[in-house]
Structures are given as structure tokens and as C-alpha cells.
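Why does residue order matter? Because the sequence determines the fold. Keep that principle in mind as you read this record.
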Amino acid sequence: MSLPPSVAGFLAAVFLAAAALCVASLWRRRGRHERAAAASETNHVVMGVGMAAMVLPATADLVAPVAGAVVFGALGAVWAVRLVTLRAQGRPLGSAIGGDRCAAHPTHLLLSNAAMAVMYVAMVPAGVATAGMDGGAHAGHGGGASSPLALQAVSFALAIYLILHTVLTVGTVLRPAATVTVTAGGGGASVGLGTRVGRVVETPAVQLGCQAVTGAGMALMLLVH
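Structure:
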């Protein structure tokens, strides 16, 4: 990926912070989570770590591009099946904007995983299908000489979605009377430091602000890969 080291480092820090938020949410809500919500948070953790590794040249080679594309393609397919199943059952899905940071809408998870898969596909070295995987062929986030036009079009479409999602999420955060579906954890008479930190982490501004920054960072990665 052709990004200045300072920008790459900032994005990696943001992505890891997003992953840490979801880990904290998983821990604080253990025992009260539906399996789908826990799965979505876990998916966000994997995406956050994957993006952080992908954006840094020193760690971009840790995951083989083909493996990354297969994993995130499979995750996207899982959320696509869940989306179709929920619609077939007539269950309300709610809005993909302004909801809980980690327990995201199936559509958002489907498109986010698709974006990850597309970025890994773009990293596959040219000729890998016939010549095999060349471990040193992709330095950073641009393995092949150029991305096929269709792949570029898909990347652009996903980037536009993520940008729109980011803008609408920021609007939700800034709206004074915004109603945000974020389940607060903790409780009890004695409020310790860990509980106070947990409550701050789970506030709408922190949760959705992290979602907005992460979405913008993923859009940037899609546009410059």
C-alpha cells in the first residue's frame, strides 16, 4: 500500500483500537450476549487485526493473500446467509447506521468482509494461478502490477458505501437527540476503575466514533490498494 509511514502507523493504531473495543465489549457482555452478537464482535476483532497487519509493510506478508481472501469471503458468505434467513423469517433488522459498534447489522458485516476479501485479492501476485504463490512478490498492499478493471470497480463501490456509512455515522454522533442502540455493561453499587473505563468505552460517542474512523480507514485502503 502506497501510504506514508506516519499515515500507515496511524491507521494501524486505529484498527487495533477498534479491535480492542470489541474485545472489551465481548468480555464485559459475556453471558448476556446472543451468539450472533458475539460472532459479530469477534468478526470485528479479526477485521481490525487484519487491517492493521495489512496496512504496515512490516506485517503485510503475515497472511497469504489467497488465504485472507478465502477467510473473509467465507465470513461474508456467512453474514449473507444470516441476512437472507432473517429477512425470510420476517425478523426486524433495524438500521445499519447508528447501532452498536460491534454487534453490527448483517448487511454492514457482509460488505465489510467483502471489502477485506477484495483487498486481499488485490494483493495476490500476478500469475499466482499458474506459477504458484511467490512469498516475496507482494511488498505492502499491492502485489500485482495492476488490479483488473472489475476488481477496481468493486473496490470503488465498497469504498463509496463505507464513506457514506461513515458520514451518516458521524451525523448520528453529532445529532443531539440521537438514539443509539448500545448496551451498557457493568453495574453494581461499587464502581471501580475497570467499570468506569468500560462504561466510557461503551458510550455511543466512543463506539460510533471508532466505527466512523475505522470505516473511513478501510475506504482509504480500498481506494489506494
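The helical segments are 5-28, 35-55, 65-89, 106-123, 128-131, 149-174, 193-201, 204-224.
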